[in-house]
Design goal:
Elements: E1 6-10, H1 15-26, E2 30-35, H2 38-46, E3 50-53, H3 59-66, E4 71-74, H4 86-107, E5 111-115, H5 142-161, E6 164-170, E7 172-174, H6 183-191, E8 196-198, E9 201-206, H7 207-220, E10 226-229, E11 232-235, H8 236-247, E12 254-256, H9 258-275, H10 283-291, H11 298-304, H12 311-324
Parallel strand pairs: 1-2, 1-4, 2-3, 4-5, 5-6, 6-10, 7-9, 8-12
Antiparallel strand pairs: 9-11
Length: 331
């Protein structure tokens, strides 16, 4: 497939979908983007797409909006390690994905690029996760479970409908535009005198590489396959060292042990999730941090012909964006 001249996109008002939308419209692709709210409608219109009000679960309505598109990018989903409503997350991630793929088939669109997640890989602790990794059968969080089930459902639905489905599985997406989730670790390092951190591994993909990987999957991806999008795996101490070099001062966190994380952190996180559900702290988050992630994103480099940003560049652009947004406190 050549670069698409027209595309239908879900999730265009979010971080990944928004960057993908900007990349598509900048290259001349006509994009129709599903929206549910007036704010989402404004965001996608500002990025050059045609807003299409609709419902993720309305396959017939979606199909009417998809007709004539060369490809469907299904990016929408609930990305939350500590969801307040697990059933609602599963409905969006699993049933919403089935509906989008069914709609593409009804519309005569042959190719769908589906945004899965590296969290669905299910590698064992200490293992480097890849596309061929056999899932260990245990889930670190409700989100990891939801995305694993959703990915299975996506390929099953595509097979039933005769759709060429390519899944892309981003690791932790970082870059300008993100200040929540794992990006808060970097903010904490920059803003606190002695932040308390845990020595674990993080796998990171630059937001620009993530967007480019989606388009490359539409052009070069092999149907029925998934591609991990992950540019680097780095320990938290090494990440702190990179950030120190960028800001020109020695950042010196305090380190918490794994024993403390599991023995105290999980019970404390359980209480926090009960007392303040919106805190973003829950046992699944602690289990994910203790487990750590190291993913191999080289298949996408080879098969999709993408190149990853150096992690130093990602951190530098992210920190510059933090500053521009006033998120870094004066020291």
């Amino acid at each position: 497939m050549t670069e698409p001249s027209s595309a239908f996109l879900t999730g265009g008002s979010g971080l990944v979908g928004g960057h993908l939308l900007e990349r598509l419209t900048a290259s001349g692709t006509r994009v129709s983007a599903l929206v549910r709210s007036p704010s989402a409608q404004r965001k996608v219109a500002e990025r050059g797409a045609e807003p299409v009000p609709g419902d993720l679960f309305d396959a017939a309505g979606l199909a009417r909006s998809m007709r004539g598109a060369d490809v469907v990018f299904h990016v929408a989903g609930v990305n939350d390690t500590c969801p307040r409503d697990v059933a609602a997350m599963d409905r969006v991630n699993v049933e919403g994905t089935r509906a989008v793929i069914a709609a593409a088939a009804l519309a005569g669109v042959e190719r769908v690029v589906y945004t899965s997640s590296a969290a669905a890989i299910g590698e064992r602790k200490g293992e480097i996760g890849g596309e061929a990794t056999v899932h260990c059968g245990e889930y670190l969080s409700p989100y990891a479970r939801s995305k694993h089930i959703a990915e299975i459902a996506a390929f099953d639905q595509a097979s039933r409908c005769g759709i060429d489905l390519i899944a892309v599985s981003p690791s932790s997406v970082q870059g300008p535009g993100r200040a929540t989730g794992s990006a808060e670790i970097l903010l904490r390092v920059l803003n606190a005198r002695r932040p308390i951190l845990f020595d674990t591994f993080l796998s990171i993909v630059d937001i620009e590489d993530c967007a480019n990987g989606h388009i490359a999957a539409a052009i070069h991806g092999r149907p029925g396959e998934r591609y991990l999008l992950s540019g680097a795996s780095i320990s938290v101490p090494d990440a702190v060292a990179v950030a120190s070099g960028i800001v020109g001062r020695n950042l010196t966190p305090r380190w918490i042990s794994e024993r403390a994380m599991t023995g105290f952190g999980i019970p404390a996180a359980r209480v926090a999730s009960w007392v303040r559900p919106s805190s973003g702290i829950c046992p699944g988050l602690i289990r994910t941090l203790v487990h750590g992630h190291r993913f191999d994103g080289s298949k996408a480099e080879r098969g999709l012909s993408i190149a990853y940003h150096p992690i130093e560049d990602t951190f530098m652009r992210t920190i510059e964006w933090f500053r521009a947004q006033g998120l870094i406190k004066a020291n």
